[in-house]
């Protein structure tokens, strides 16, 4: 009975590891194929995080079943990746928007630029200025909290999608 | 079941190669930073699977270490790209 449970858990862990590796491959595929920094960070953040969480859970179960050791490093790594990988993607996307990395031409909405414009913050307006302002951090708004407030306004406000061509 | 682990390691290496393509080609710095972050995460997963493949727990400190280093590198690069400097918590108040 115990042998059967151990066998099932071991193959379940192998299935989890294989699923996680496949999710990482799909994440890399999205990173190559998607047209835009923001869409690429969608692929690089979400499916990559799920992939590494699946792999680490699988390795933890593998060691728990085959060696009867509960490895705390792996558990700590699961929690750490769960917290930090989306946070890094968020920071990267915000930095990209503020330094004026252009949106994909098929994008129909840029709520952060609208909100910054409505609040009077001189956001670099990624859809307008293009990549020419990448090396100009002096265009940053002088007060970072103000931009955060503008972002908070953007999520709460209901507006028709502006035509940001 | 060693074969499954080997296939997973090969798939993860393939994913790292795909991210490396984006690092080399990416039109903006943010592309490269996102791809480098994904590479760090994939390397941590690869090290964990390598530990399962060799049936040794010696590598598992490395998973956490690589994760922390990749996260700190991503944060530092993103802040540098956004503000022009990395450590600016002290001079936020005296910004002109």
From TrEMBL, chain A:
This is Na+/H+ antiporter subunit G. Belongs to the CPA3 antiporters (TC 2.A.63) subunit G family. The chain crosses the membrane at residues 12-32, 44-64, 70-91. Its main location: membrane. It is found in: Membrane. The keyword Acetylation does not apply. Residues 125-138 have a biased composition (Low complexity). The keyword Secreted does not apply. It is a multi-pass membrane protein. Pfam families: PhaG_MnhG_YufB. Keywords: Antiport, Membrane, Transmembrane, Transmembrane helix, Transport. PANTHER family: ANTIPORTER SUBUNIT MNHG2-RELATED. Residues 117-165 are annotated as: Disordered.
From TrEMBL, chain B:
Its main location: membrane. InterPro entries: MrpF/PhaF-like (IPR007208). Pfam families: MrpF_PhaF. Keywords: Antiport, Cell membrane, Ion transport, Membrane, Transmembrane, Transmembrane helix, Transport. The chain crosses the membrane at residues 6-24, 59-78. It is found in: Cell membrane. It is a multi-pass membrane protein. It comes from the Bacteria. The keyword Cell membrane applies. PANTHER family: NA(+)/H(+) ANTIPORTER SUBUNIT F1, NA(+)_H(+) ANTIPORTER SUBUNIT F. Belongs to the CPA3 antiporters (TC 2.A.63) subunit F family. This is Na(+)/H(+) antiporter subunit F. The lineage of its organism: Bacteria, Bacillati, Bacillota, Bacilli, Bacillales.
């Amino acid at each position: 009975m115990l042998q059967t449970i151990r066998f099932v858990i071991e193959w379940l862990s192998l299935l989890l590891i294989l699923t996680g590796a496949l999710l990482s491959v799909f994440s890399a595929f999205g990173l190559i194929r998607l047209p835009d920094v923001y869409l690429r960070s969608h692929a690089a953040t979400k499916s990559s995080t799920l992939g590494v969480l699946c792999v680490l859970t699988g390795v933890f179960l593998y060691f728990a079943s085959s060696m009867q050791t509960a490895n705390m490093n792996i558990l700590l790594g699961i929690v750490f990746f769960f917290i930090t990988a989306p946070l890094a993607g968020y920071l990267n996307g915000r930095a990209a928007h503020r330094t004026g990395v252009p949106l994909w031409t098929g994008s129909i909405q840029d709520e952060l630029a609208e909100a910054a414009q409505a609040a009077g913050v001189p956001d670099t307006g990624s859809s307008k200025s293009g990549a020419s302002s990448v090396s100009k951090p002096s265009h940053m708004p002088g007060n970072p909290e103000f931009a955060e407030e503008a972002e908070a306004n953007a999520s709460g406000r209901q507006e028709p999608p502006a035509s940001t061509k | 079941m060693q074969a499954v682990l080997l296939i997973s390691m090969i798939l993860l290496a393939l994913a790292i190669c795909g991210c490396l393509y984006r690092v080399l080609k990416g039109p903006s710095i943010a592309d490269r930073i996102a791809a480098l972050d994904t590479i760090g995460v994939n390397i941590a997963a690869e090290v964990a699977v390598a530990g399962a493949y060799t049936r040794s727990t010696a590598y598992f400190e490395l998973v956490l270490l690589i994760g922390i280093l990749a996260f700190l590198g991503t944060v530092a690069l993103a802040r540098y790209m956004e503000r022009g400097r990395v450590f600016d918590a002290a001079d936020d108040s005296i910004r002109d």
